[in-house]
Amino acid sequence: MPVILRIAVPGNPLRRYFDYLPPADLDPARAAALAPGCRLRVPFGRRSVVAFLAEVATESPLEPGALKAAAALLDDSPLLTPAVAGLCRWAAAYYQHAPGDVFAAAFSQRLRSGRAPALGAWRLTDRGAGLAEDALARAPRQREALAALRAGDALTDDELTARKAEWTGPRPTIYASGALWKYAQLVGSTRLGAVTHPGAEAETHVYMDL
């Protein structure tokens, strides 16, 4: 019995699903056991897109020879609960909306792009999301981290580390006069326990540590 994957393909206005064969390297038994809410990469016209499994069927109005195979299965298990996947199908039918866009709305930007789920990842708090663009003007690394999280939805530790290599890094802190100069001479970084420090010339990272 053939396995037909009924896929919701985002980014097109058609109010219908598209039938695909399972990826060539996917075991037929595993393909038959897939549940709605998994992501697959599929060919669509001249593009390769991340799409969403809506149903596993055994029949298609198209001849098997006319069906394309999905390129890859991106998830070992569905990322949507059965209730949410069912809600997406219902909403697409009830509101007569393109199912690909309805399913896409249930996934984060990160998942829609085809990236792996970010478990234990860094995300913005509500306060962080509401910060003004110039709120971290004197903390360049924090500012760039904020921009990366706003653009990418979430970042794992490894992704954040990789991005740090491209960031400008802390500027040398100039202690010119007054109490700040005295503090820099007498007390070291809080990261090192605020111990007595040899002088301001070595205090180039204090404002970042604090």
Describe the fold and architecture:
This protein has 9 helices and 5 strands. 31% of the residues lie in helices and 13% in strands. It has 3 domains: 4-112, PriA, 3(prime) DNA-binding domain (GIY-YIG endonuclease, 3-Layer(aba) Sandwich); 126-164, no CATH class; 178-209, no CATH class. By secondary structure, the chain is of the alpha+beta class. The chain has a 5-stranded antiparallel sheet with strand order 2-1-4-3-5.
How far the N terminus sits from the C terminus, by CA atoms, comes to 64 Å
User: How are the strands ordered across the major sheet?
Assistant: 2-1-4-3-5
CATH class of the largest domain: Alpha Beta
Question: What is the number of E strands?
Answer: 5
H/E element order: EEHEEEHHHHHHHH
Helical coverage, percent range: 25-40%
> What is the C-alpha radius of gyration, as a whole number of Å?
25 Å
Query: Main sheet?
Result: 5 strands, antiparallel
Total of domains: 3
CATH homologous superfamily placement of the largest domain: PriA, 3(prime) DNA-binding domain
In short:
By secondary structure, the chain is of the alpha+beta class. The chain folds into 3 domains: 4-112, GIY-YIG endonuclease; 126-164, no CATH class; 178-209, no CATH class. It has helices at residues 28-32, 82-94, 99-104, 109-112, 126-129, 140-152, 157-164, 178-186, 206-209, and strands at 4-8, 18-20, 39-44, 47-57, 72-73.
